[in-house]
Amino acid sequence: MKVEGEASLPGTPEQVWALLQDPVRLAKCLPGCERLEPTGPDRYKAEVKFALAAIAGKYAGSLELSEKRPPHSMRLRLEGKGVPGFVKGEGALELTPSRDQTTVRYSGDAHVGGMIAAVGQRMIEAAARRIIQQFFDNSAKELRESKPAD
Amino acid sequence: MIPQPFEYLAPKTLEEALRLVERHGDEAKILAGGQSLLPLMKLRLAAPRFIVDIGRLRGMSYIREEGERIVIGALTTHTEIVESELIRARCPLLAETAEAIGDMQVRNRGTLGGSLAHADPAADYPAAILALEAEMVASSSAGTRTISARKFFVDMLTTQLRPGEILSQVRVPVLAPKTGTAYVKLPQPASGFAIVGAAAVVTSGKAGKIESVSIGLTGVGPKAYRADAVEKALRGKQPTPKLLREAAANAAAGVEALSDLHASAEYRRAMAGVLTRRAIERALKRVNGKRA
Fold this sequence. Notes:
The complex is a heterodimer. By secondary structure, chain A is an alpha+beta fold.
């Protein structure tokens, strides 16, 4: 499944970059994220609770950042496994300034397998779009709230 | 195929059921006919801690005429709707839609309220409920409130219902004179779910012009919706084959179409147009009481 799109976030690319590198703040923005712990440089262990009405499941997995070019671009890889199935994905993020905002372009490829894929197939793509949208909504909120008062 | 352990609660009254869902919040799921929730639990895609079984509540399975409305209890099964003389006479669209759902076992156990509250993006009822401009009655310990069909469906598997509320009744307005209805569906062969389903309610006016038309679509996007662009293009017009074809082509305008193994987004959009046109044509044929 291809995932692609862009979002506008308040703040400079440096501010957005700082958010993406901070596990405590990042955990607040990732929908359903219950834990995000560093296990090494640019590697994290994650626990995510995904819930869409009746369908709910806990996923444990990892997140890895690579090819970092602060504050312009990076690649990320994620893997998650839970009772309902597994998720594996790889993608790239690109940050470009646009006036007082930052445009984040993302593109990637995700594989969803196991029961969730067999049964929820027709809803997975739309669900993925919702989760990405929520992540950017949360990030925008976090960035606005963390701005120093002037 | 064996669900995770859960605590089973079987309230005897709606009030008791409401207290239970209020107390247990999002750890509880409401079980009605079980045709959506139980498969999810058996596959362990859903693992609620508490099951509040409202299937045994008395007095929530009925079909009555009240003034200009047909009121239907949320626990009424699909089969009861298919077989109801009142519905076949006064609101045949709902019977035609219920008849298209799943298989006989699902129709015998599944309920109108359960299907609507689950809000599967490919469920059949939402198309008809939207086209009929029905209203949903939600009960909570604070009382009841009425939600219009347009507002009820929020997103995939998501409705206007709040935690602590139970969908208790559906109200369907009686059709105006000179009105025809139809539900047309392209089913996914294995599951029977709608790849696309189109429901049309058409009222004829002077000289065969379309006086009013409402169209509900399911299966196309993350939630069922009204095909506003199509309705607008047809209102007050003479329904020529050319106009119907052109108008129906906009059935998926502005909709984020779903895509899966069985049907790409592009295919769903194309079929939305085809089935919308067929639903309108069939509804028009039925305006004068003819079965088509």
